[in-house]
Amino acid sequence: MAEEKILRCSKLLAQQGMTIAFAESATAGWLCSEFALAPESGKVLKGGIVCYDAELKKKILNVPNELIEKHTPESREVTEELARRLGELIASDIQVAVTGLTGPGGSETPDKPVGTMFISAMIKGRLVNFRQVFSGSCEDVIHETVRAAAQLLINELE
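RESULT FIELD:
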């Protein structure tokens, strides 16, 4: 069964006749799969791209290498760019992008520790952002990020 907030968000999207697409890095498609479990998925979900590796961010979504080198693949700036460019590949009313650090070995710093997650959403051409540091296992961080993404969308749609 889908996450409660995903169900609420999916219902809001359907009521407003809106569609959604995802570009996921750190969550590796988990967010998109949660929306696929909602009863309204056939009406609202367009699809998603998993771009875990930075090369995919560049090659599939055309994120400039300079932006990735300057800000790292796990950054607000790159996440925003993913959200902006996703609409060129998947026509939808909302484009959601997620990057972040679910475990060690990425671009973590004292200001961006493991657990830092970035969500950007283009909602009918308007960009909204979310940054949060979650704690726990990789799976815990992903679950919290999925809930946070749904809540971000709910806040914008209500």
